Amino acid sequence: MSPVSPVSEVDEVSDRDEAIARACAEVAAARRTKPPRSRGGRPRVLRAIGEFLVEAVGEVVVGSIVAGVSLGLFAGVVALVVWGFSVSPVVTVVFTGGVAVFLALGVREVFVRKRRDRLGKLLVAAGVFTILWVLGLIVSSL
C-alpha cells in the first residue's frame, strides 16, 4: 500500500464539494425554470382541458343529432300506424302484433342465446313482414 498524502485528501474533498455544489446549482436552476409548454405557448394541462371540452361538446352534439333522428323515425312510424289504423284496423293490429313478436324474438336472440348468426334471418323476416303489411294496407284501401 502506498501512503496517502495529505494533499491528495484535500484535493478529493474539494472535488467532492465542487461536485455537490454543481449538483445543488443544477437543482436550483431546474426549480427556477418554467414548466414545458406546448405549441402555441399554452401549458399542456390547458391544452388537455381544451381537448376534453371539445370532445365532450362534440359528443353532446352528435348525441343530440342521433336522438333527433331516432325520434323523427319513431314519429314517422307512429304516423304510419295511425294512418294504417284509419285505413284498415285489422291489418294494422296484425302488423303491430307481428312487430311485437319479432322484437321479442330479437331480444331473445341477442340476450338469451348469444348466437348472432340467426339475427340476420330474423331481420329479413321482419322486413318481409313489413312489406306484406304495406301491401295489405294498399290492397285494403282500394
Total strands: the figure is: 0
Tally the structural domains.
Answer: 2
The radius of gyration is 38 Å
Oligomer: single chain
SSE string = HHHH
Largest sheet: none
The SS-based structural class is mainly alpha
Mean pLDDT: 78
Described by the principal axes of the CA atoms, the overall outline is rod-shaped
Distance between termini?
Answer: 121 Å
Percent helix, as a range, is over 70%
**Residues in β-strands, percent:** under 5%
Number of helices: 4
- Unreliable residue runs: none
Give a brief rundown of this model.
This protein has helices at 6-32, 44-87, 89-113, 119-141.
Walk me through what this model shows.
It is a single chain. By secondary structure, the protein is an all-alpha fold. It folds into 2 domains: 10-72, no CATH class; 88-142, no CATH class. It is built from 4 helices and no strands. The mean pLDDT is 78.
List keywords for this structure.
single chain, mainly alpha, rod-shaped
SSE layout and pairings?
Elements: H1 6-32, H2 44-87, H3 89-113, H4 119-141
